[in-house]
Amino acid sequence: MVSAPDFDATLRKHGLEPLRRSAPRTLQINVGKLCNQACHHCHVDAGPGRKERMAPAAAQRLMEILAASPAVTAVDLTGGAPELNDNFRYLVESARAMGRHVMVRCNLTVIFVPGMEWLPEFYRDAQVELVCSLPCYTEENVEQQRGKGVFGQSVAALRLLNKRGYGRPPLGLNLVYNPLGAFLPPAQAELEARYRVELGALGVEFDSLFTITNMPIKRFAHQLRSWGKEAEYMSLLVNHFNPGAAGELMCRSLVSAGYDGTLYDCDFNQMLEMPLTLDGRRLTIWDVGDLGELESASIATGPHCFGCTAGAGSSCGGALT
Fold first, then answer.
1. pTM of the entire structure?
2. Burial bucket for residue 274 (CB in 10 Å: 0-12, 13-18, 19+)
3. Largest CB tally within 10 Å, which of 142, 192, 219, 277?
4. From CA 127, how far away is CA 174, in angstroms rounded?
5. Is 289 within a domain?
6. What would the pLDDT profile of 15-62 be if each residue is shown by its tens digit?
7. Which CATH number fits the domain that encloses residue 231?
8. Is residue 316 part of a domain?
9. pLDDT of amino acid 3
10. Residues of the chain where predicted confidence (pLDDT) is lower than 70
């Protein structure tokens, strides 16, 4: 990554305190890097050939911690494609049995992977919220980022989910937009309105659109370098720092668990191997009981944090301001 102003120094410049954790409300679980797609913007560097995946012992320990962490009300499952992990059913069913809200970050096309036809009914029966990647409402732009045939499969998957009640209460179906190039997302509300028109014409309903800034890490960072735009993009993020977004950052109330059990402040720190630490020691799921123990801990930051604080801000739930 190219050099950039220090993020903590920027916080101080704007009269903001260094980032510290509040009471954790969301446990995000990254089950590994196996995915049926290999998207150009992927900060996880996931793909069909990746072998990193969560083992049963780690999945079981995470559910033990969840049971001991009453303040954590939501579980956010991600990957790779989380559905391809052998522990997926167990994680969803265990968390739902505890009364926790469960979100699944779905790439839509996983529904058509051989042997995964059961997914739409499972999602519905478990009453999970779906957060589905669809980086544009046009075939050309989606396939530029995600590969040939992905747009058609994504629309077909959305129609299947609509038939099973998704896109109408109580089954939440949210879409995720990522920019196709080295620029910030447009205004979330305006883009959502356009998505509704374009996808409505295709017979698709959804609840909300989340606009997420591409982080200059992993696969997108390599793409920026190939374009010769790494420094330009980093400058864009820094120059659009929004103090108002800093107070809403997801890392304040989210704990991210890696497939190997290491704990992080967010999924982006996870991909950069910047773990939560205590006395210089990496924290894992075997080091904590109640995740509330992490409240007030300092948050590890780096130049990539400018991505979450640029413009309207960015999080796993879309724009922050």
1. 0.95
2. middle
3. 142
4. 14
5. yes
6. 999 999 999 999 999 999 999 988 766 777 788 989 999 999 999 999
7. 3.20.20.70
8. no
9. 54
10. 1-4, 40-41
User: Has residue 320 been placed in a domain?
Assistant: no
Other residues' Cβ atoms within 10 Å of the Cβ of residue 42? 25
| pLDDT at residue 1, as a whole number | 43
Domain annotation covers residue 317: no
Predicted confidence at residue 249, as pLDDT, reads: 96
Could you give the number of structural domains in the chain?
Answer: 1
Q: CA 93, CA 185: separation in Å to the nearest integer?
A: 35
Structural domain of 18: 7-308
3-state secondary structure the chain: CCCCCCHHHHHHHCCCCCCECCCCCEEEEECECECCCCCCCCCCCCECCCCCECCHHHHHHHHHHHHCCCCCCEEEEECCCHHHCCCHHHHHHHHHHCCCEEEEEECCHHHHCCCCCCHHHHHHHHCCEEEEECCCCCHHHHHHHHCCCHHHHHHHHHHHHHHCCCCECCECEEEEECCCCCCCCCCHHHHHHHHHHHHHCCCCCCCEEEECCCCCCHHHHHHHHHHCCHHHHHHHHHHCECHHHHCCCHHHCEEEECCCCEEECCHHHHHCCCECEECCEECECCCCCCHHHHCCCECCCCCCHHHHCECCCCECCECCC
Q: How far apart are CA 199 and CA 178, in angstroms?
A: 17
Is the Cβ–Cβ distance between 23 and 71 less than 8 Å?
A: yes
The answer for 309, left when phi > 0, alpha when psi is -120 to 50, beta otherwise, is alpha
Residue 41: predicted pLDDT: 67
Tell me, what's the pLDDT at 28? 98
∠ at Cα 48 (207, 274), nearest 5°?
A: 75
